[in-house]
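[retry 2/3] ABC transmembrane type-1 domain-containing protein: previous attempt timed out, resubmitting with same input.
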Amino acid sequence: MSLHQPQKQVVAGAVPAGAVSGQPSARRQRRDLAPWLYLAPTVLLLAVFTYWPLLQTAYLSLVDWNLNPGQSADFVGLNNYGRVAGSTLFQAAFLNTLIYIGASIPLKVLLPIPVAVFLWSVGQKGHFYRAILFLPTLISFVVVGIAFLWILNPIFGYAKVIFAELGLRFPNLLADPDTAIWVIIGISTWKVLGFNVLIYLAGLASINKELIEAMRMDGAGDITIFRRLIWPLLTPTLTFVAISTVIFTMQQVFTPIDLMTEGGPSNSTTNLFYMIYQYSFVTFDVGGGAAGTMMLFGFLMIMAFVQFRVLDRRAHYQQ
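[retry 2/3] ABC transmembrane type-1 domain-containing protein: success.
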């Protein structure tokens, strides 16, 4: 007994239903719209709290206003940029910013690498030291600034007592223009060193230790292993740490500057961030503060672009 199933007839030139109009189906439209709906909350938050304030700052940099709601904002064009760029405060702040950034590379970017490699090599024995190094990161910068003000006080500070026991005179480091900036740099380094160490430890955790054992069997020493294996595989983490450190190092030193020196002595510790604060909320020169903000934004964009182009080309990403 044979079963005969009806065969569908194929008509030449037949077009599936729903395709005649040339419009996508409702299901496909919903599928294409779904990613944008997921992105909408984030895009909305970025637009409201990032891009709109940036546009507002760009507008304020072109007007003369002193935060008085009853005073109209007079358009002055690029005069604020020229006035701020030509001031001695900006020149000192820009030079100090370069010093802060230059010092952050060896102290905050490179110094944590050998510390992280050592803690990684000792395994679980290094957990205690990791906690000790990370502890300053958990302390508020306000508390850190007040503590170091007490330690470095030239009259009754703890450092002065130790120097007196040794028969030495303790200098007033924060009152000396040649040393004050290095005190701020040292305090900020002590504060963030442990955080960068943990980031490098996260990068080291992805390295297979069997590769190290294989290199040791081939007669490679510690320096060769670090130079040929660990350093190349750590370059992506190094790129992230370098870019984030340069961008955030000026924000990190704002609190100790404000608490310990207020930009002095003789503008020797101020930077571009603190200069913007002085323009905007000390002298109420909103136009000058906004112009300084836009110049700082451009400076950071250039620094990030240069770092990314230089470091990312040398980064070795594991496949």
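[retry 2/3] ABC transmembrane type-1 domain-containing protein: The CA atoms of residues 63 and 121 lie 57 Å apart.
[retry 2/3] clearing retry counter.
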